[in-house]
Backbone:
């Protein structure tokens, strides 16, 4: 039985996590491949400065319950956004008759991808979404190329003409 090719679409979680997915979907159609989605959140998920400052203010006032609520509210919002986006992408793949699966992970992007590939050797190609490959703080693509032997495609966001 012939093994089907698998494309790994790696993206940073958030509203723009589906940027570049239409390209991956077209590639999967032309290669008759399946798609694995790996959505990564950095360790410092509480990135929004205002949320951090609000949490600090409540913590200093000894209101730890409100701090917990703020942290949980953001965690829930992140989870809801991830679920909504994954459902949309699942639907697109179903319509295109493409095998699709997804995982959401937290951590340092290169390590998360390395672990993922170690557990799923069936991946043939890695495609990095524009929101990940354009973020130098989140992902050093050169370092990733040294650590991972699979072909890696970086997608850049198209810049609008001025």
Residues:
């Amino acid at each position: 039985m012939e093994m089907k090719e698998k494309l790994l679409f790696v993206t940073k979680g958030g509203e723009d996590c589906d940027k570049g997915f239409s390209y991956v979907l077209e590639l999967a159609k032309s290669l008759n491949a399946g798609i694995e989605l790996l959505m990564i959140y950095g360790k410092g998920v509480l990135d929004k400065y205002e949320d951090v400052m609000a949490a600090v203010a409540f913590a200093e006032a000894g209101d730890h319950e409100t701090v917990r609520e703020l942290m949980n509210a953001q965690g829930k919002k992140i989870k809801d956004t991830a679920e909504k986006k994954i459902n949309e992408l699942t639907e697109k793949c179903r319509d295109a008759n493409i095998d699709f699966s997804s995982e959401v992970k937290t951590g340092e992007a290169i390590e998360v991808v390395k672990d993922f590939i170690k557990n799923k050797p069936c991946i043939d190609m890695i495609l990095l979404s524009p929101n990940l490959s354009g973020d130098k703080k989140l992902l050093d693509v050169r370092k990733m190329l040294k650590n991972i032997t699979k072909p890696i495609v970086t997608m850049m966001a198209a810049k609008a003409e001025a």
